[in-house]
What does this fold into?
Amino acid sequence: MGHGHDHSHGGHGHSHDHQSTPKRSLAVVLALTGCFMVAEVIGGLFTGSLALLADAGHMLSDTASLAVALFAAWLAGRPATPSRSFGFRRAEILAALFNGLTLVAISVWIFVEAYQRLSEPPEVLGGLMLAVAVLGLLVNIAGAVILSRSSGESLNVEGALRHVIADVFGSVGAIIAAVVIIFTGWRYADPLVSALIGLLVLASSWKLLRDSVIILLEATPRGIDAENVGGKMVGVDGVREVHDLHIWTITSGFPALAAHVLVGRDENCHDKRRELEELLEHEYGIEHTTLQVDHAGDHHATLHSLKFRSQSE
It folds into this structure.
């Protein structure tokens, strides 16, 4: 049966045990952020500072977002079932999208509040505002350092990290506003710095929203050229045609590929499938592949499918 048709799935095993490290990081930062959030809300209300309240509002969102990210990380680690063959891995991407949208909502709230305060800036207690802002900066830097160690492994953790980094900028802005108010008494510094914080928060949401939407739309992963992949596959000796090529991302760090491959009449379908799997894993890091391999002439490409033909035909 050396030349029999091969419809088997070339899926490779995945050990996503790295989930535990991101979950620990998220849990630690959630505790830090949750504790300080209460102090910053009280400090913002007591001092009358919008910059502090803007940062506190963002930290309030951080607490919720970190909790969502932690829950999504736990959910993503749940085992697959017959009805959910990939388990809940996409839960992390949904959490990342949620975090991106909350960043946009926070920035809009900051802009509205800053605009209202520009007409008549209230009195602000600069000294206490500075003390709270400095403490907030230290907490946020600690959180950013913890999350940065795991951000490359998960878009979900990267979303939480972007929230915390935006908080770092928020604390810096509050410190600047406090210093200006202490030394000059210029109360407009508070709403103006708040508006700047709003712009930074809005900017930090862009990559997160873009990457999560790309994954949810099952687009080709960033950094992988589908044309190049198809060309390399059809360049394998004995491969005549590759069509119905699909490359997408299941969740962060989990690319997948499916394709219909036609080989020469004298080729062994099983051997060619294994050769293509090794190529895809070594060249592009794609371990999860589903390849249907048939002899040329037995099957044809579906309409509008991405098709690659061997130059040797």
Helices lie at 20-47, 50-76, 91-119, 126-148, 155-184, 189-216, 226-234, 269-284. The first helix runs from residue 20 to 47. Confidence is low (pLDDT under 50) at residues 1-18. Strands lie at 239-251, 254-263, 288-295, 308-309.
